[in-house]
Design goal:
Layout lengths: L4 H7 L5 H16 L5 E3 L3 E3 L3 H17 L8 E3 L15 H17 L23 E2 L2 H9 L12 H8 L1 E3 L13 E5 L6 H15 L4 E4 L7 H14 L6 E2 L19 E5 L1 H11 L9 E4 L6 H11 L9 E6 L1 H9 L2 H8 L2 E4 L15 E4 L2 H10 L3 E4 L2 H9 L1
Parallel strand pairs: 2-3, 2-4, 6-7, 6-9, 7-8, 10-11, 10-13, 11-12, 13-14
Antiparallel strand pairs: 1-5
Helix pairs in contact: 2-6, 3-4, 5-8, 7-8, 7-9, 8-13, 10-12
The structure holds FE3-S4 cluster.
């Protein structure tokens, strides 16, 4: 593998033990994938939740922090496993302490304290063609597909190594050849609702797995948040890290996403497929849930406005919990717009900096959850041993105020 003088300096310890350690890790991965060289990456997005990093992750980050590691490139962090008022959620002290240790180490390393899976909304916005090293499947799908930046689904550990060196092996989606479309997906429904984007994403992930789908039939005026929902569902039900939408996403506007080759496969998604999927995703016929959760991925301002509009002047049913997961950035703007007042007056609860999937909901002992997120619906039954009711946003909000 070709290493620059600067790579060798990092490897030989010129910039300290943390950088040396990170560079060793990057080179090991590069050797496994037989890469020729390393590339510069200009931003990182790392995992920071105890719910998936566990004790090994805490020790790893603390080790780097103690070695005086510092981010070399702008680096943001995914949601944490703890809501602010974690004691109200019956989360044991022992669990919470691990996340608090992660907060401390991550802060010391100089990570931008976003604690959100939508860093591209405000503070970490890569441009077209930029090499980045992001973790978290929905953020990766968005950055690759909607923004046209280049990242792999960077594993935990390697994401932080990229943050403190600014280097990554030239592998996977950094390479042109791996970005070309493989499966043509024809959407056969005319008017797509917000909810359809979640469901279509779920179907695509199930059908294509790790391949790169090229989607035809999505209107050119679709909203970014709709593509965010599609990507997050496809990344969860399958392992889609890059999708192209004809005439919509940058690599499918500039050129033929199949690079003049025929698709390996063509699939169609009909209105019936979407309807059947909605029915199939729910694990119960029951229409009432202990908890209603929206905001996976974290809601955009546009989505939050829709929620606030339905909730204005209404009250959440006293025996239902309605949780809205948000980034702090969207929360701050929404506060300025008085949206938060309407939401809080209804009795809905806003959860900042955290996520329904990687927080330990088992301690709350809920039996069922209603959600509009295909990603939550895909994960919660196995991860949290709960029944799930998959419904559109309006049904979720109206279910909470019924
Ligand atoms: Fe974000 Fe958590 Fe969903 S990280 S995409 S809210 S699973």
């Amino acid at each position: 593998m070709h290493l620059t003088n600067n790579d060798l300096d990092m490897l030989n310890g010129k910039y300290g033990k943390a950088v040396q350690f990170a560079m060793k890790l990057i080179i090991i991965i590069g050797e496994i994938y037989q890469t020729d060289d390393l590339i510069n990456v200009s931003s990182a997005h790392i995992l920071g939740h105890y719910g998936s990093l566990y004790d090994a992750g805490v020790e790893f980050y603390e080790k780097l922090a103690n070695l005086n590691a510092k981010c070399r490139i702008p680096t943001t962090v995914d949601p944490s496993s703890l809501p602010e008022n974690w004691k109200d959620f019956n989360i044991p002290d022992n669990y919470a302490k691990k996340q608090l240790r992660l907060y401390k180490a991550i802060k010391k390393i100089g990570v931008i304290q976003t604690w959100s899976c939508t860093p591209y909304e405000f503070v970490n916005i890569p441009r077209y063609g930029e090499y980045i090293a992001w973790a978290e499947s929905s953020a990766v799908a968005y950055a690759n597909s909607v923004l046209g930046a280049r990242t792999n689904r960077t594993p935990a550990g390697l994401d932080m190594a990229a943050a403190i060196t600014g280097r990554m092996p030239r592998i996977g989606f950094y390479l042109d050849k791996n970005r070309k479309g493989q499966v043509l997906v024809k959407i056969k429904k005319k008017k797509l609702t917000d909810f359809d984007y979640h469901s279509i994403g779920y179907i695509i992930g199930k059908r294509v797995g790790t391949k790169v789908p090229v989607i035809e039939g999505v209107p050119t005026n679709c909203a970014s948040y709709q593509l965010k929902c599609l990507g997050s569902a496809a990344a969860s039900s399958g392992a889609v890290s890059l999708f192209h939408v004809i005439d919509v996403t940058p690599e499918a506007i500039k050129e033929d996403p199949f690079k003049e080759k025929s698709p390996e496969e063509v699939i169609e998604i009909t209105p019936d497929d979407i309807e059947n999927t909605i029915q199939k995703i729910s694990t119960t016929q029951n229409e009432e849930a202990d908890i209603i959760a929206i905001g996976c991925p974290h809601l955009s301002l546009e989505e939050l406005r829709k929620v606030a509009k339905i909730l204005k002047g209404k009250k959440i049913c006293s025996d239902t919990r309605f949780w809205i997961y948000l980034s702090r950035a969207v929360y701050t703007i929404a506060q300025q717009m008085d949206l938060i007042t309407d939401i809080k007056n209804s009795g809905a609860q806003i959860l900042l900096d955290t996520c329904p999937v990687i927080s330990p909901l088992k301690y709350c002992r809920f039996r069922s959850m209603m959600t509009n997120s295909a990603k939550i619906a895909n994960v919660v039954p196995t991860e949290h041993n709960m029944e799930v009711i998959y419904r559109d946003l309006e049904t979720c909000v109206k279910g909470a105020i019924k």
